[in-house]
Prior knowledge:
The protein contains twelve helices and 17 strands. It is an alpha/beta fold. The strands form six sheets. It has a six-stranded mixed sheet with strand order 9-10-11-12-13-14, with helices on both faces. Strand 16 (about 310-315) and strand 17 (about 315-320) form a beta hairpin. The two termini are about 15 Å apart.
Amino acid sequence: MLTPASEQTLEQADVLQVGLGGAESNVAMGLAAMGIETHWIGRVGEDGFGSRILADLRAHSVGTTGVQRDPLRHTGLYVKVPAQEGQSGSGSSMLYYRQDSAASAMGPDLLSDKVVAGLLADARLIHLSGITPALSPDCLELCRAVLSLPRNGRIISFDVNWRPALWHGKDHGVLQELANLADVVLVGSDEAEHAFGTGNEQELRALLPDPEVLVIKNEAFTAVALERSGAREEVPALSVEVLEPVGAGDSFAAGYLSGMLLGLDLKASLRRGHISAACTLTVPGDRGPLPPAPLLTALVGCSDADWGNTSVAAGEIRSPAVDNLASSTISPIPGKADP
C-alpha cells in the first residue's frame, strides 16, 4: 500500500509511504496480536513488494509458509488517497493496481498445495473476504472451493468488505452466494446496501439464512449479531476520537473472531470487536495498538452503564470499568512502524 505523506493529495505528494495493506492480512495480524496462532495464505510476486509483505507479516507473528511466490506476475498494489478537508464524500479512497497480479492467479489448485492443505486441515477458523473473489474468475472459484470444504470442526468466516472499484463491470451478486456458504458473516449495513440491496437486519437475515451468525456493523452506532436460531445481541459502539477510519472494520473482525475462538458469548465477542476497532480509529495506520490483557478483560466484562461511559482517544481508554487498574494506556503494537 502506498500513501501520500503528510495527508497531501496524490498530485501534490513528492513522497509516498510504503506499508502493508489488505483486509485479510490486517485480520491475521490482529488475531496474532491477541495471542492466536495465525497464518496468511496467498500469492505475491518475486519482487521487493512481495518480500516486504512477507517480512511484515512475520514481524507481526503471522505464519507465511502457505504463501507462494510468482516469478512472472507482480505483487498487487493499491494507493490510499487521504480524504481532504472540504472534500465531498467520506474517508479515504483507493486506487487499485491488481489486474494480472500474483494474487489474481490464485485458483482452486492452490488447495492441492501440500503446505496449504495442511494449514487448512489444522485450522479452527478459516477467514475470507469479498475482496478475493473480485480479483479474477479463478479467485472466485477458489473462494467457492474453500467455502464448500467439509467443516470437520472448523469455522469459516466471510467479511463482505465491499469494494466498488474492484467489482466495476462484474456481477457482484455472487457475494450473496459466497456469504451464504459461510458459518459467520460480517458486513457493514452501509456496504450491505450496495452488495445486497438492503442494510435492514431482518431482510439481510432472510437473504442469508444459512450462516450460523450474521454480524451487522451499523457504522459508528452499534453492532448486531443475529444467530440462525433467532437469538439477537446488540452492543453500542464506544465513543472514539477518530483520526482515520481505514482498517477499523478489519480490526473489528479480528476482535469479534478472537472472542468466538476463545469461547465467549455474542455480547463479549461484539465488545472485543468494538474495542479493537476503536483502537484502530485513533491511529493513522490500518491497525491500532490493543489494550493490555487486564484492561481488555475489564472492558469486555463491565456493566452496560460502564461500557456506555467508556471513551477512546489516542493512546488512552477512559472508563469507570478501568478506574482501579494500574494503567489505561494502550501499548504500541510490537514491530509497528511509526506513521
